[in-house]
Amino acid sequence: MLKIPTMEKLQALKLNGMLKGLEEQNASQEYESLSFDERLGLLIDRETIERENRRLKTRLKQAKLRQAACFEDIDYRHPRGLDKSLMLSLGNCSWIKEHQNILITGATGVGKSYLACALAHRACLEGYKVRYYRSPRLFRELHAAQGDGTYLKLLSGLSKFHVLIIDDWGLETLKDQQRNDLLEVFEDRHGISSTMVTSQLPVEHWHEVVGNPTIADAVLDRLVHNAYKIALDGDSMRRKKAS
Q: Which of 10, 27, 109, 235 has fewest C-beta within 10 Å?
């Protein structure tokens, strides 16, 4: 007689994991041999898993990753100079705990974005908040925020992500406002969070992309000197798959 009211209360309290678990227990005789404590423990475990899955779904939605990349699916067979031991060490996300950055460079098609998204996906699994941007989109949003009065709010929001991904960096030399915007973003994140950058240009040419020598020194000092550098080479993986 108590089953229906109990389920209604679980639903009202939004304990959906426990509700599903109780429905499963009521539908199967295999739980009848378990003690009350054992059955309650299973319900609590089910609720914990349900909440963790919801939080993960929220983090992945918030991250807006460009590709549905999985760390376990990274291709180490294609010759592109990818160090498997380094990648496995990055997979434990200690670089995020230590507020270090990752810089991935290489020609178009060698898998830079996929690696960044795979590492970001692993970070989401470990409970970190991630946000992905292509660099043109990031600068457009910063420019728009300058115009509508939400600039400081946007900067504050960017600073709160454990990992910020800037993909396709260095497509063109930065303009004055873009340099200043980038410095503000990195200044807010320096020493407290991690940034991942992908670019077709080698790191030694990034100074030229920023343009202004003084701002370039300040930007790269906050980005490059505390970073893992992954320089990829070889043929395009997209071309290989197509053929």
A: 27
Determine the length of the chain: 243
Structural domain ending residue among the three candidates 62, 84, 101: 62
Per-residue pLDDT tens digits for 47-74: 788 888 888 899 999 999 999 999 999 9
Same domain flag for 154 and 34:
no
* One domain, residues 96 and 137: yes
Q: How far apart are CA 43 and CA 27, in angstroms?
A: 14
Residues 6+ apart with CB under 8 A from 227: 100, 101, 102, 103
> Is 113 in the same domain as 172?
yes
Residue with tokens 């423990």: 41
Q: Residue 229: give the domain boundaries.
A: 64-242
Partner residues linked to 131 by β-bridges? 164
Question: Average pLDDT, whole number, for the chain?
Answer: 89
CA gyration radius, the chain: 23
Number of folded domains that form the chain: 2
The residue among 35, 62, 89 that closes a domain is 62
Render pLDDT for 164-208 as a digit per residue (tens, 0 to 9): 999 999 888 899 999 999 999 999 999 999 999 999 999 999 999
**CB neighbourhood size of 54 (10 A):** 12
79: amino acid identity, one letter: P
Among 230, 236, 240, 237, smallest CA distance to 81 is for: 230
